[in-house]
Amino acid sequence: MSRTWVVLALLTGVPALADGQETDPPGPIIDTIIVITHDIYSPEEAAKGWVYRLTNGLHVTTRPSVVSHELLFKVGEPYDELKLAETERNLRARGLFRTVEIDTLRVDDKLAVRVVTNDGWTTSLDFNLNFSAGEVIWGVGGQERNLLGTGARAGLSYRQEPDRDVFTISGGMDRIAGTRTGVGGFYQALSDGSFGGWNLGVPFRANPDGWGVDLVGDAGDQRILQFRDGDSLQTYRRRGVRQLAWGGVATRADVRGYLRLGLAGAIKSEAITLYPATVPDTLTATVGAWGNFLDPRYKVVTHYNGFARPVDVDLSTQILLGAWLAPDAFGYPRTGFGPVVEARAGASLGPMFGWATVNANGLYTSAGLDSGTVVATGTLVGQFVRKTSSVLHIEVGAMK
What we know:
Elements: E1 2-9, E2 30-38, H1 43-46, H2 50-58, H3 64-68, H4 81-93, E3 97-107, E4 110-119, E5 123-132, E6 135-147, E7 152-160, E8 165-173, E9 182-190, E10 193-202, E11 211-228, E12 231-254, E13 257-274, E14 282-295, E15 298-301, E16 311-314, E17 317-326, E18 336-349, E19 352-365, E20 368-382, E21 390-399
Parallel strand pairs: 2-4
Antiparallel strand pairs: 1-2, 3-4, 5-6, 6-7, 7-8, 8-9, 9-10, 10-11, 11-12, 12-13, 13-14, 14-17, 15-16, 17-18, 18-19, 19-20, 20-21
């Protein structure tokens, strides 16, 4: 089944310029946006056998509103090829579609933008069975990433381990009521406690976004088992709550890149003691600041990390600088300062493309460097043979 939605049609004119004013010739104005969502298999493909028809019958086609909420262009705006390319990348990044195509056409000599998506299969079922050291570990579960065609996520699973049983329920939605607001969470009912996590915010979802905020946290009360040489050594009880908050603004933001600056903070209440005894919780907090620069560059390829699906390989130049401050007044034995550096750059040459990354972080106190890690990676991909990718990946690092 296909769904078609004409978002809006609007007649527009170009305002007259003031005397002496100079400007670049305006691009054509978008008059109409058409959104078409297709089922997993086309009618021609479905005619090949009952398996194709059954797959379409079990699947709910994505609603056109899910697609339209990702559009970075509007009726009445000048046509911008970069905005169309960024929209395609954002739609593919949702993981809901086999293909995404955006093109233009003329309707009564007016410019129309047509967005066509073909759904992918978004239901996953999992069953695993392992035998190790005379123990049986098994689990069963399922997850849907496009619930009833709304783009919402939902999942259930059960896992039986030698030390505990785990029942997990999860869910989330990225764009509530068509806004950038997203929510998600999970809850694990353990045979020896409970654990859960949540997130709520208005994150940066596209390069032109001017601001973003997010709240991420978790809470739990459960056993921690300590082993040595395969034998159980000690059992602890951990009870705690963690909450991270961050927010940022973009001093420059469009489809051509951004520079974002922001602040972050975290607070943790935790107690770890021998099981089943309890002790009062300790309360700690940290604050931080960060900056993120991006010069976007992507390469669309197939048969790489996605079988025959088109994949956007990130070859952007990106630099993130940040720092965390953990004062002794916030519950730590001594004041600590933690710098963070992340950098990435990529390039493409004919059938080859690759990228390199550097990630470094550390913790400094009055006694000097307390701990830290540095990791550098390099990845080179060659597509010299049809439908085949050859990958060379190198990774080195150091840790204190």
